[in-house]
């Protein structure tokens, strides 16, 4: 008898789970359809396209993975990749540290000023990237920007923001300005979910506010820090909009293939090299995945993602 | 899992069918003839969306993409006078924006307008190899129109002056010099007529206390740099309809070197600046007195009005561009034409629109006065009304007396079938030459190699 009972229960739970499964599929269907239609299909198509090579005179022929060997030995692609890696090395820590410091400061001063500054720091993120970049393009302008006159008051010459030497810092500034507030809000909300009792006991043990911030709060939100870093890393490797917009002001300083994404765009839309452009996009995607995976593995302890 | 695999494989199957058929299409096209295909469906555009309002119902429509100013007025005028065809016009962005839309429509094999505005330097890329997307209008009698246009632009639309006609010219940009008479007068410096004098005058202005510069060399000027070299008889690019598989790249000639050495020297001396062209800043510096001259295409003449930050005391005049010697040819930079695409629903009617749209005194009048187009029509260029037009911006100077002869004397020159790539490479090398003092000979040699390699990689034969 008991065995029958067990069997019966098992049967029932299976039918229930099947029914639940059906509902589960029903609820994920809208996502799944969009995911397939706008991500999987285009990616598959792009990969398929990248297996062909195109020449203006002979058209498109199947060439297997030869485009990939071309991409990974293409000095323009490698230089662009190197450039975004340098950007990542500078920009990711700068944004992360700034966002963390701001989040910690705002978290420890809980008054009206803190909610105002939270909003103020977050505001740049609310501005569309293109508009932000256009605005900075104007601010950086020697002729029309305000810095020429501001520096003029002190009898100084405004730095050449858009010169070959200045462009790196200028772009870092635009991105930092735009994204730090966003990362700060993520870190700040992570801090909000930390139970206050931990701080109280730390205070009872005689920890200073600085010690609490560095030794308790920061390690506790480590998983959010890892997430923010991954966001920022991926964003930087995919660097596109800001240099693309500033290029309108200084086409000779920012080359059309300044970053790998810009290279892919130029190949597809200016040089009519759609197949090779798909290859570059895929190669970039591959490297981004690689970088993210390596980073996630290195930080699996901090992120709490270890199995 | 299995199901998703099945879906994925179905997708791939569909895509491969699409792609294979796409490739097949291109193949059969090139087998038939060396030309873009023609069609004759008069009703296909009945439901086309237009930016202009079409009043006449039940008349065949031809779709047009163009970015000329005052285009709507010209379209309305054209439609008023035609009962057999109505133009359905869209502004699909100007220049590169519109070309990107052409590229997308070409890939999609649908969605391209019947008639499109194209600049002279991009025509060859829609004619060569597997990219035959504009129709040879010779079969519709376009070659008979050649004497209505200046020689240079006809050379450009026929890709070398042969029998083929790939577009109908509309406007052009004769190369001239605009200068600030007030600045030259103030410092007592003679307005230069040759490049030697230009350098001298530039130095003199600086010595006598002029805070700005005589002018600007634009490494990113694209076509303007081809023009500057052409002015010294350097023929950097060669391509003709007669030999569609061959290209010529020649930056290593003595003529090209001389021009680049000249600008490198002027930049090094601080006689000229080397700002990027066509940016908001560049326009402002032209009008605010930073530069005493602007050697440029005539289309700049009309675009200086209304730029904020202009020097109100400016006294602008137009003069011929400085020359190298008495044999320096008249040159042109820019301008555009109307081409008929391989996706035209009714190719013959589209060709009629391309050929006749501007062939009307009223529309030409709007084009010249309201769009600010510099005409390619010899009848207008010869007319007294045009020659005697005055412009208060230029102190009522009859500027067309200076510009029209340049337009007439221009002989035309070629552009590569992958000109956007060539321009980008050009910019890098010219920037290096004028800003970083790079070795002129070596830099031009490497530019030559880069472009020749690209041409070879694209399947072209590079002329030696």
From TrEMBL, chain A:
The chain crosses the membrane at residues 22-48, 84-107, 119-139, 167-191, 220-240, 276-296. Residues 81-299 form the ABC transmembrane type-1 domain. The keyword Transmembrane helix applies. Its main location: membrane. Keywords: Cell membrane, Membrane, Transmembrane, Transmembrane helix, Transport. InterPro entries: ABC_transporter_permease, MetI-like, MetI-like_sf. GO terms for cellular component: plasma membrane. It is a multi-pass membrane protein. It is found in: Cell membrane. It comes from the Bacteria. GO terms for biological process: transmembrane transport. Belongs to the binding-protein-dependent transport system permease family. This is ABC transporter permease.
From TrEMBL, chain B:
It comes from the Bacteria. Keywords: Signal. Residues 1-22 form the signal peptide. InterPro entries: Bact_solute-bd_prot1 (IPR050490), SBP (IPR006059). The keyword Signal applies. This is ABC transporter substrate-binding protein. It comes from Bombiscardovia coagulans. The lineage of its organism: Bacteria, Bacillati, Actinomycetota, Actinomycetes, Bifidobacteriales.
């Amino acid at each position: 008898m008991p065995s029958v009972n067990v069997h019966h229960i098992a049967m029932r739970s299976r039918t229930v789970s099947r029914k639940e499964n059906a509902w589960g599929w029903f609820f994920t269907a809208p996502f799944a359809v969009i995911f397939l239609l706008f991500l999987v299909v285009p990616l598959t198509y792009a990969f398929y396209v990248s297996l062909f090579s195109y020449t203006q005179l002979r058209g498109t022929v199947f060439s297997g993975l030869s485009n990939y060997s071309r991409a990974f030995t293409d000095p323009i692609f490698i230089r662009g990749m190197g450039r975004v890696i340098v950007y990542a090395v500078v920009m990711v820590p700068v944004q992360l540290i700034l966002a963390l410091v701001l989040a910690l400061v705002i978290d420890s001063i809980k008054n009206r000023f803190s909610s105002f500054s939270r909003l103020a720091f977050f505001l740049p993120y609310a501005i569309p990237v293109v508009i932000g970049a256009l605005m900075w393009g104007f601010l950086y302008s020697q002729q029309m920007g305000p810095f020429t006159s501001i520096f003029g008051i002190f009898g100084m010459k405004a730095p050449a923001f858009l010169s070959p030497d200045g462009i790196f810092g200028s772009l870092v500034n635009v991105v930092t300005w735009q994204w730090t507030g966003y990362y700060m809000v993520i870190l700040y909300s992570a801090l909000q979910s930390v139970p206050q009792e931990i701080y109280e006991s730390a205070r009872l043990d005689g920890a200073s506010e600085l010690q609490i911030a560095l030794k308790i709060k920061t390690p506790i939100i480590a998983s959010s820090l890892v997430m923010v870093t991954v966001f920022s890393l991926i964003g930087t490797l995919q660097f596109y909009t800001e240099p693309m917009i500033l290029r309108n002001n200084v086409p000779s300083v920012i080359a059309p293939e300044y970053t790998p994404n810009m290279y892919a765009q130029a190949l597809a839309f200016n040089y009519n090299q759609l197949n090779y452009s798909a290859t570059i996009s895929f190669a970039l995607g591959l490297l981004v995945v690689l970088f993210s995976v390596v980073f996630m593995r290195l930080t699996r302890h901090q992120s709490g993602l270890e199995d | 899992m299995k199901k998703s695999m099945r879906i994925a494989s179905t997708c791939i199957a569909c895509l491969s069918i699409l792609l294979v058929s796409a490739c097949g299409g291109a193949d059969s096209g090139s087998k038939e003839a060396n030309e873009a295909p023609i069609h004759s469906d008069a009703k296909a555009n009945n439901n086309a969306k237009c930016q202009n309002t079409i009043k006449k119902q039940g008349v065949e429509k031809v779709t047009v993409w163009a970015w000329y100013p005052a285009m709507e007025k010209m379209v309305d005028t054209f439609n008023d006078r035609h009962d057999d065809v109505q133009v359905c016009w869209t502004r699909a962005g100007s220049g590169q924006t519109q070309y990107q839309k052409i590229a997308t429509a070409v890939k999609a094999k649908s969605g391209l307008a019947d008639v499109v505005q194209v600049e002279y330097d991009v025509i060859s890329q829609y004619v060569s190899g597997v990219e035959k997307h504009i129709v040879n209008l010779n079969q519709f009698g376009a070659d008979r129109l050649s004497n209505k246009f200046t020689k240079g632009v006809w050379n450009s639309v026929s890709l070398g002056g042969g029998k083929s006609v790939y577009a109908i010219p509309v406007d052009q940009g004769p190369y001239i010099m605009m200068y600030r008479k007030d600045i030259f007068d103030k410092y007592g410096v003679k307005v230069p007529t040759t490049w030697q004098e230009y350098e001298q005058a530039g130095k003199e202005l600086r010595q006598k206390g002029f805070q700005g510069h005589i002018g600007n060399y634009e490494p990113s000027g694209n076509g303007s740099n081809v023009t500057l070299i052409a002015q010294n008889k350097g023929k950097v690019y060669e391509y003709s309809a007669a030999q569609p598989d061959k290209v010529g790249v020649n930056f290593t000639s003595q003529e090209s070197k001389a021009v680049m050495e000249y600008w490198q020297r002027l930049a090094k001396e601080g006689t000229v600046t080397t700002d990027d062209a066509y940016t908001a800043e560049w326009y402002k510096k032209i009008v605010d007195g930073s530069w005493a001259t602007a050697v440029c295409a005539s289309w700049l003449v009309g675009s200086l009005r209304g730029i904020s930050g202009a020097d109100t005391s400016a006294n602008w005049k137009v003069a011929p561009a400085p020359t190298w010697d008495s044999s320096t040819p008249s040159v042109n930079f820019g301008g555009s034409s109307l081409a008929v695409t391989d996706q035209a629903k009714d190719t013959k009617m589209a060709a009629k629109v391309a050929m006749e749209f501007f062939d009307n005194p009223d529309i030409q009048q709007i084009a010249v006065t309201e769009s600010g187009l510099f005409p390619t029509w010899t009848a207008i260029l010869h007319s007294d009304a045009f020659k005697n037009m005055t412009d208060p911006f230029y102190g009522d100077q009859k500027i067309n007396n200076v510009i029209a002869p340049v337009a007439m004397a221009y002989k035309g020159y070629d552009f590569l079938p992958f000109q956007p790539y060539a321009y980008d490479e050009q910019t890098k090398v010219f920037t290096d030459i004028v800003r970083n003092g790079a070795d002129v000979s070596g830099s031009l040699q490497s530019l030559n190699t880069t472009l020749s390699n690209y041409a070879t990689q694209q399947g072209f034969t590079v002329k030696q």
